[in-house]
Specification:
Arc Repressor Mutant, subunit A; three-stranded antiparallel β-sheet; 7 helices; 3 strands; about 65% helix
Length: about 170
């Protein structure tokens, strides 16, 4: 079951977070940060566990997601490194592992022989689908355990982090 968000209440919560961050007592802000980190960490751990069970290192799984989930379903190694927030040399190591397992394909990107374009193979896509299907049950159950207040606190922090507002009249508090 999907819960409908009360946009006005969520926007009020987001504004309260912003106000709390500039006060001496930042408890309301850190309460939202705690909920957001709890939700994200819990979900990421579920995904990591399923990826491990599928024989894939969690960071390699993230690499597949970043490549396949990119607009062109293709990334250069340097762009993948940036998306994963790792050194290009480490990204290159991940790519070798994924390529050896048949989950990605490397091709030269244009005239620069150093530039390599990465795409996910059909086997890699199938693995991503399998992992996602296995994770869905766990995430769906976890979501039912969250209170509306926990959901709102987590979402309000995420909105704050990405600079998103539901207020159509513009301007922060």
């Amino acid at each position: 079951m999907v819960e409908v968000v009360d946009a006005e209440r969520l926007e009020q919560k987001r504004k309260a977070v912003i106000r709390a961050r500039s006060r001496k007592d930042k408890h309301a802000y850190f309460e939202g940060v705690a909920e957001a980190r709890f939700v994200l960490r819990k979900v990421f751990r579920m995904v990591e566990e399923v990826a491990k069970q599928a024989g894939l290192d969690p960071l390699a799984h993230q690499a597949l997601i970043q490549i396949y989930g990119s607009a062109d379903m293709s990334l250069r190694i340097k762009d993948l490194a940036e998306r994963l927030d790792i050194a290009p040399a480490f990204a290159s190591s991940l790519i070798k592992i994924l390529s050896t397992k048949g989950f990605i394909k490397r091709t030269r990107a244009g005239a620069d022989v150093r530039a390599v374009q990465l795409t996910v193979t059909p086997n890699g896509i199938e693995l991503l689908h399998q992992i996602d299907s296995a994770v869905k049950v766990h995430v769906d159950y976890f979501a039912t355990q969250l209170t509306p207040s926990q959901r709102e606190a987590a979402v309000s922090i995420l909105m704050f982090y990405v600079g998103l507002s539901l207020d159509t009249t513009a301007g922060d508090p």
